[in-house]
Amino acid sequence: MPLLRAAVLALGLALALTACAGSSSPPAGQTAPASAQPAVARSGAVIPGAARQVTLSLKYGANAGSRKPPAPVTVTSSVKVSAVAGLVTVQPPSPSGTYNCPSADGMALIATFRAQPDGPALATATLALNGCEGTDLTVGAKDYALGEPDSARSLAARVLKAAGVPWTLPPASWPMS
């Protein structure tokens, strides 16, 4: 299973790099148009190609005490938006069946894709940072469960890097204070 996971991660990185390599930089002060190619998940989920920005936000969960997450960040670089969409959608559907997970308290990295500022969400990916650490992708009114158990935390780190957001992910569980 570790070899399969490594192959899936390598494929995701290759797709993200391919998306980046095919883009040229816009003139200073301008944003390049979003790719006409939508990011398509192996599950059949599609992040629309009209997505020109992604807002990243952290939820610290119910057990964070008085800790406050950083303010949300909106990324408008078409290269970065495409890379984030590619990382999310390259994941396989979550496995079916029953498995045991540690407790979850709502800690997550949330990526909301929009066509324009303050526009409606075209797609929202919620990467659980504790519990089973899966990814929930919502496009329109349809939900897709993506990723292997325990995969969303490492995916979240790659998403932050691809987006150029220098956040440090919180621990899977907060220390008792």
Task: Describe the 3D structure.
The chain is 25% helix and 22% strand. It is α+β, with helices and mostly antiparallel strands and 177 residues long. 34% of the residues are buried.
Write a brief caption for the model.
The chain has 177 residues and is α+β, with helices and mostly antiparallel strands.
Number of helices: 3
**What is the strand tally?**
8
Beta-strand residue fraction: 15-25%
Report how far the terminal alpha carbons are from each other.
Answer: 37 Å
How much helical structure, as a percent, in the residues?
10-25%
- Overall mean confidence score, pLDDT: 80
Strand order of the largest sheet: 4-3-5-6-7-8
- Taken from the alpha-carbon principal axes, the silhouette is globular
Order of helices and strands: HEEEEHEEEEH
Over all CA atoms, what is the radius of gyration?
A: 16 Å
Structural class category: alpha+beta
Low-confidence stretches: 1-36
Summarize the main sheet. 6 strands, antiparallel
